[in-house]
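User: What would this chain look like folded?
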Amino acid sequence: MAEVLSFDMTNTSESDVWFLDLYSSVNSFSGPNYNPYIGSVLGSIIVGLSGIFPLLVIPIDGGAHFNKGAGSEKLRLLLSFAVGGLLGDVFLHLLPEAWNCEDSYASNKANHLHPPLFSGLWVLTGLLVFIIVEKLFQKERPSEVEEPTNNNEPKGKSSPKEIGGYLNLMANVIDNFTHGLAVGGSFLLSLRIGLLTTAAILIHEVPHEVGDFAILLKSGFSRLEAAKAQLMTASSSLIGAMTAVAFSGSNDLIKQKTSWILPFTAGGFLHIALVSVLPELIEETSPRESLKQLLSLLLGISVMAALTMIVEE
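Assistant: Here's the prediction, encoded as structure tokens.
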């Protein structure tokens, strides 16, 4: 039973009265009429809206080219930050979380597959699936498309988007679904835990979304297209939250059945970071720019490490 706090209303200032009114309003949601559906929906929507945050802070115009143009250096720095953020997310958040979940399941089932082996196999599966998808749908890069030399010729269609952008969106759909499960499951416990979990995921997601936005810009998306795509992938967070609430009576079963999602997503993020983005950054010839990109990559790792430690405390 939740603890009910009582306050002495004597000798209170106006600010104290305002705080007590605010507390009473919030506390009323955790009473007998508390509905976890409302908190889960609002929490997943708030987390999903973090996808448009980069639109407000990234000054690069849509269609910025990776190798030329005014925004190319900024784009490469953002992509370096994205690689660092993805690597930090994989090795400091997703895989440790997957191992912890598998350890808890293995303690309850003697015949369960060895936890590190289970996670490792799903990481490799995610990596291989993304490689296969990229090989199947790989299109000609925009830089390789021949441009007409005659000024009188009509302009052709816009450059095709790189498959790496769509792979990133695919990984984000899966990742956001797990966030939705966490948000929905936390609001089932209490309003306070739900709010804290939502805030933790939101803090963790903001730098991740900045990196995702840079990857979409590199893949040929305009700023508006990237923001729309981010919002569309965020809808899976709402689905995850509703799944957790709808099957609230079998939370352990849901966690066990979806335990493959975290390592699978880690494999996808590894492919995006090390195959789709990093090879082009390695081609940088300027020592100064290479150093700046390395520092940006380390910054991405450091931000994810710091946020992981803050959130888990």
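Confidence is low (pLDDT under 50) at residues 1-5, 140-158. If you want, I can go into more detail on any region.
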